[in-house]
Amino acid sequence: MENTNKPSLIQTTLTWGLITGFAGVVYSLILYFAGLSLNKPAGYAGMIITIAGIYLGIKAFRDQSLGGYISYGRALGTGVLISLFASIIGTIFMIVLYTYIDPELITRSLQESQDKMAERGMAEDQIEAAMEMSKKLFVPMVGIMGILMGVFLGFVISLIVSIFLKKEGDAFNNDMASVK
To answer: What separation in angstroms does the CA of 92 have from each of 21, 22, 95, 166?
Structure first.
């Protein structure tokens, strides 16, 4: 008798989302301890973790659950779910980092934003009003934008990765194999 204990879509995406999310947290901690938390290029380098997690997760789902075949749409959906779970983990970590581990990061981040506004020639009263609003909404916005941007980025990455991982088989044989 054939083993039918194949991982489901949710099992696979949750597993790879957690792996990707925790790898991102480890990378963020490395940046934090190196004093590079607000360094943009170092942050962009962390996208390699997201790309690898989505790629490996889609590939695992295709090979372990779908017999080596996956449509473009299903691969895209799988990648988006992986990025959703990874984004939730990463966002929870960022909220803990900004709220409990190092609240001073909020001040440094807001100061960086204030300097950029001044460089663009904004009036001092506009900058001050923006900073007051930003202080109040910083942590909730980290939560909302962390998940939204993470899923959007995961969607874009999945659009590309799915091109390489899609593997359409003979529809008749695929359907007949599921009947056996």
So the answer is: 10, 11, 5, 32
Please classify residue 76 by burial: count the beta carbons closer than 10 Å to its beta carbon, then call 0-12 exposed, 13-18 middle and 19+ buried.
buried
The CA-based diameter of the chain, rounded to the nearest angstrom, is 74
In one letter, which amino acid is 30? Answer: I
pTM, full prediction: 0.84
Give pLDDT tens digits along the chain (180 positions).
445 678 899 999 999 999 999 999 999 999 999 988 878 899 899 999 999 999 999 999 999 999 899 999 999 999 999 999 999 999 999 999 988 988 888 888 888 888 888 888 888 888 888 888 887 888 888 899 999 999 999 999 999 999 999 988 765 665 665 565
For 166, the token pair is 């899609």
Query: How far are the Cα atoms of 3, 6, 20, 49 from residue 23, in angstroms, in the given order?
Result: 31, 25, 5, 7
Structure tokens at 101: 């581990």
